[in-house]
Amino acid sequence: MKYSDTEWEARVDLAACYRLMPLFGMSDLVYNHITARIPGTDDEILINPYGYMYEEITASSLIKINIKGEVLDNPHTDGTGVNQAGYVIHSAVHASRHDVGCVIHTHSRAGMAVSAMECGLLPITQTSMRFKDIAYHDYESVAIDMDEQQRLVADLGRQDAMILRNHGLLVASPSIAEAFNAMYWLEMGCRAQVDALAGNTKLIIPSAQVVERTHHLYQPSVRRPFGIMEWPAMRRYLDRRDASYKD
Length: 247
Hints:
Layout: H1 5-23, E1 34-37, E2 44-47, E3 63-66, E4 71-73, H2 88-96, E5 102-106, H3 109-115, H4 126-129, E6 135-137, H5 148-156, E7 161-164, E8 168-173, H6 176-198, H7 208-217, H8 231-239
Parallel strand pairs: 6-7
Antiparallel strand pairs: 1-2, 1-5, 2-3, 3-4, 5-8, 7-8
Helix pairs in contact: 2-5, 3-6
């Protein structure tokens, strides 16, 4: 095999993550990225080929680059490459956070809606309370300015999730499994908020103590790192529908 067992497993998991995103309404045509650091390396990252829809991604179609965005391995011979401009956000996170193994960025409808709300993500559901300390980054136009990386990383800090104002959502997690889980729940929190606000009625906001306790119970060191237990089920969910992501 061209790749080590470790890299291949990372490729299969990342391809699975790409395939899951559109199934749960979190993709944006051929745009956005999910990047994963190859285990055992400091600067080798897997990313999608630019121009492919998420539902087309396979383990062998992923492109290997380094933190600088330089291509290390490209299986495509038809000129398909990497969206260099779109990688600005991902490279900033991977370079500054060595605890992060996977970064997901979305332009979902609900995520964009909440990103434009001055109130940000409200603690109105158990799901959204998980992200009580979510970070925020102000919009600076399309993310092609390398100078923005410093401000983006400073705003993210040590958090595992961030709302990019007037833009979308981002999660940064230790593993692909945890990243998908975090983005799924963050997306659900945003959808619930949009729906609740559309009801045009007064919202119930739990006490600060309840919000803090709920947030605490979602921390990976308290009960479990959410996403790990769920991941085999997510892979089986895909296998029942289309197992070609493993190719």
